[in-house]
Here is the input.
Amino acid sequence: MARTVANLDVTSDTFQNWVNKTNELLYSLTTEIITGNSSISNTGTTLEPRKAQLLGRFGANTLVATNELRGGNVGDSGYALLTVTSNTLFGGNSSANASYVNAQANVFVNNAVLQVNSETITITGNTSIKGNTSVTAITVTGNATVSNTIIAGTDLFVTAVNTSVNSRSIFTGNTYIKANSTITNITVQGNGTTANTILAGNLTQITSNLDVTGTLHTIAGNVNFDSATLFVDATNNRVGINNNAPDAVFVVTGTANVSGASRLSNTLNVVGAVTLSNTLGVTGAANALSTFGVTGAANALSTFGVTGAANALSTFGVTGAANALSTFGVTGAANALSTFGVGGAANALSTFGVNGLLTAAAGLTVTGTANVSTNLNVTGTGNVQSTFGMAGAANALSTFGVNGAATFNNAVSITGIITINTDYVIQVTANGNLGATVGSPLLVYSFPKATYSSAKLTSQIKTISGNTQISEIVLAHDTTTPYITVYATVVSPLGANNGIYSVAINNANVELKFTQTSASSNARIIAHLIK
Here is the structure.
């Protein structure tokens, strides 16, 4: 806002020069210099708009900008920031025209307060709040319509204690609710799609009823319902009932009642008592480490193992192997279609039928009829108080006592010693190879001299070439000197001589010896010992 007019030189300038400079000043005063009066004073015209720039300060009670107020210089391309360094009040010019501020360029409020009192800020276009922005309070009263509101940036932080959003709020991106937040109601209406919903923090509490609908719900991490009433261990992929530290895939602590059918396709391990009021079907192995009680039918299609007491009050059917390491009591019918092993006492109060192998590692007591259609193996004491019928092979590895009649329709195999009436013992031994020594006595059989006083022996010696010699021998001793008589010998082929017998006492044993004529003969002895 400056115009240079040369000074008059009273000695050299003419009157005409003075008139011209005076007119120039009047023209500048009319069109270029800002003046004021009681009405309106304009500088320049619409045909000749003027530009002015004051290098310094400019003061006015009221500053009016007809079209725009901007920062920069007066040039056409001199736009820059407009900085307001004090409090600023924007007011309207009449009650009919609402007060507004139209900012078509960037407006920055730095280190100051932008305050709008009892007025309305109307934003008709898209509005962006960028950068690190702290908003203390935004209140929308009356009927307010927001077409599109975009809050850009990575995070939107609401640090107030209470945050109230009335009516509906739509979030199209990732939404985070952090710190201590209370949500009364969240409703998704219409066609709503939630890609990822994250509730962050150490603890999320829902104090009201929770209704979750849908067809697929995924929860990552451990889940604890009602203080371990149901506990899911996501780390080890285990589930506990009344147990918050399950040590197996599925653990139930307490009593489990099953009123229907229970089907297991693999091993069943029970460390406590199992009581079933209905059918139990097991297609794999069933192991009960304690009492196993069945009031209905128990069907095991494979191995059935019991280390405690197994009590079947009704039919007990096993199509595989049934192994009871302790007492096995059956008050009805017990049918084992395959191997049935009992490591303790097996008590059958009624019919006990085994179509496969029955093995009793301890006592087997039958008060009724016991029918075995194939092998019966007893490694302990077998007591039959009534009729005992055997259609197959009976193997007794220990004492087998029958108080009634014993009928065997097939072979009886005994792998131990047979004792008859305590004083008579039958024993069978074999020595597959006497070794390479020829011409010296070799031990083929012995018995304790303090137990047995005499013996009748049947001895077979067979060479590796096939020569066979069988002899009947009687023997007696007085604990110091033994005496022997070989009274019957048959050889094959005729004229063969496999060797000779002798007898001696060596410490506590009476020893039968044989001097072989060819190396590596084998010996088999059937001994009848008398005490």
